Amino acid sequence: MDSGESNASETSRSLLHDLGERLSSLITALYPDERQRPGYARLARMIRETTGGTISATYLWELVTGRKRNVTMEQVAVLAEFFGVPLDYFINDEVSRRVNAQLALAVALRDAKVRSLALRADGLSPASLDALLTIVNEARRVEKLNWIAEDDDAGDAPDRPEA
User: Fold this and answer.
1) What would the DSSP string read from start to end of 4-72?
2) From CA 118, how far away is CA 104, in angstroms rounded?
3) Distance (Å, whole) CA 123 – CA 75
4) pLDDT tens across 53-81, in order?
């Protein structure tokens, strides 16, 4: 096998691995409470009812776990339609990062206290907002949560280096 075939095979495996991770992220974002998260059979039924596309529960599980290797663009399009993301979400890293940032914000805003904090901060002066950001960043450090850079909307910044 020449290096071109090897690279194509590696890219295919990477895309399938990414597809599983991205599907899992979408399911988690839609259903953050594991106890209320629908099983694959129910998800497959919801996908069929919503989009008209057919994906079996087993096939969906195989995609999420990375065990299935023969996904079609038609099936990816059905998943994109159901989850309300662009088709490119599943195949383009930049689109995936942008959508994941929006999902992280939506998930964070589900929490009434986070929403209340954001709404109460609206209208404050830039100096007051900077002070609040400093307090929140310190609280995140104390609770050993990932540090989020001010220009990082995605929320996936690397851990803040300890000073």
Assistant:
1) HHHHHHHHHHHHHHHHHHHHHHHHHHH---GGG---HHHHHHHHHHHHS----HHHHHHHHHT------
2) 15
3) 45
4) 989 999 999 999 988 878 889 999 999 99
Residues 87, 21: Cα–Cα separation, whole Å = 15
Question: One-letter amino acid identity for 141?
Answer: R
Reported pTM: 0.67
Residues with Cβ within 8 Å of residue 141, at least 6 apart in sequence: 147, 160
| Rounded Cα gap, residues 77 and 86, in angstroms | 8
Which one-letter DSSP state was computed for residue 90?
A: G
CB atoms within 10 A of CB 69: 10
Q: Compute the radius of gyration of the chain from its Cα atoms.
A: 19
